[in-house]
Amino acid sequence: xSLPSNKQRSRRLRKKMRVGGFQELGFEYELKLKQSLTPDxxxxxxxxxxxxxxxxxxxxxxxxxxxxxxxxxxRGSATEDDRQATQAWLAAQPEVAEATLSAxxxxxxx
Length: 110
Description:
elongated
């Protein structure tokens, strides 16, 4: 989906479309693992990610082990602090060889 054309819209419509001052930001992650993981090991890594980082920071994540997207749960934006905490957490995991995170970007109109 592309960003809607730049025209005058009411505040209510801008909020509904999540544009302008209501834009919501998130970031992508991509992981390179030290070795391939079994499905149980992948699930354990994702459970730790959710329980130790995503849920305590009130974030939401989509994707799986090799790549995904993180944004705020419900309304709002992920912050640069959330991004840096995710980078540090992923880098500290023994299964992860390299973690690459994108800059904050529009979560709805990529």
